[in-house]
Design goal:
4 copies of one chain form a homotetramer.
Chain A: E1 6-11, H1 25-42, H2 47-52, E2 56-66, E3 75-86, E4 89-98, E5 104-115, H3 125-128, H4 133-137
Antiparallel strand pairs in A: 1-3, 2-5, 3-4, 4-5
Amino acid sequence: MDKELFTLDFKVRDYECDMQGIVNNSVYQNYLEHTRHEFLLSKGIDFAELARQKINLVVLRAELDYKQPLTSGDEFYVDTEVVQSSRVRFDFLQNIYRKRDNKLMLAAKITGTSVNERGRPFVPDVIVKLFPQEQLAE
Amino acid sequence: MDKELFTLDFKVRDYECDMQGIVNNSVYQNYLEHTRHEFLLSKGIDFAELARQKINLVVLRAELDYKQPLTSGDEFYVDTEVVQSSRVRFDFLQNIYRKRDNKLMLAAKITGTSVNERGRPFVPDVIVKLFPQEQLAE
Amino acid sequence: MDKELFTLDFKVRDYECDMQGIVNNSVYQNYLEHTRHEFLLSKGIDFAELARQKINLVVLRAELDYKQPLTSGDEFYVDTEVVQSSRVRFDFLQNIYRKRDNKLMLAAKITGTSVNERGRPFVPDVIVKLFPQEQLAE
Amino acid sequence: MDKELFTLDFKVRDYECDMQGIVNNSVYQNYLEHTRHEFLLSKGIDFAELARQKINLVVLRAELDYKQPLTSGDEFYVDTEVVQSSRVRFDFLQNIYRKRDNKLMLAAKITGTSVNERGRPFVPDVIVKLFPQEQLAE
């Protein structure tokens, strides 16, 4: 797979900062989720449309390394790539960089899967197509 | 160390649920943070007061395993214990259980530290007292 | 109508505070919404269940008077009553009081209605029953 | 005053939608706040910097008319203008329009003031300059 990086630009919004004057820890998950959904959309995978069809993309595990805090006024971007870690599991590797100095602020690995209405693993065709067949054979 | 468990009760609020009808992934970090702060407060450590003194308790790493989703109406509780993993690092082990069946919904390890105004590690006395001296010798 | 007051207890969570060290303005709407939903639930009206049936309770207008800010550690309660302002409109009168001194922190009037899948006003029986017939005749 | 309109572009993020599949009511206040802060910044007024100086811009009253709900994928913009309604009060008139059809989704009037560390009204020079002297005389 060509480790194509999808990138999305953001700016910190003041309501995202907490009493320490920095972006609250939970908010980074919002940034990461929005970037994943925009990344998927760029591949023709619409999270909201799938949810309406009762196919739910869900997170199984999140690992987040907080390197430096974002604060009011900071512009930043989120890089995202995805690798298939099993037939029904996908690892999103996501990094958040501050724009003015390209400093790494947060590194994350988010493992997700796709489930049907009964909560059973179900990978729709649009997602299968996301991964070249060769990849799993590696 | 006596693995004393601090427990806090919650109920899902509908605004915490997303279009999948389940609690959004980022919201669990809110639950975990609030429980940590209440746990610390029960030990005489006031996060907000420390922040006003420019001593900031910060998260370095978060690992969250999403087992089952919480949904509208669910009552749940968060168990929390803390272990000192280095002179200036603390691991909070936190589990979220659904009340009606005590089912584990999320397991997390949140690693934090304490920094002063210049962002340097600084562990105030109130936090030092949290950990028995023997523990580090282990 | 007997101006029965429904009351729900809360405690400020630190992630709800912003860089000014006080609860962010938008968060009060979360408190109010959660209280409305618990109020409705106490009357047998389940917001989430209605949403699944494609009957959506929606807000048409919100008026909020911010009197004093809530801050970290504050316990508070939200009083709620509802009056029917037209055949398909309901005004929730909600007040937030700080617990330690019963001081009024916020007063709100939230006007809502109920719509069906096509977005047309539709008041299900469970809601009709909420209001005594005499009330509209007034 | 020339009713100059400040405009900021947004796109709905999926985590902002609730179980009804539409943007949660409280989130509009986030959009409005972020737009006000960007508007002020464009005038040289930095909300975060003022907060660090213990000068707090606070909201006294919010009126929000919800016209149509924003939903997943919607792009929108927020128009903002401000008028001085008394020596120490400012009314922000803000409208949210969906981009694809310029449809009005929400209209709001947010009344704010500026207070010092003791919570007393205090309007710093940067804000005084925002309003031409003639305006109050009207």
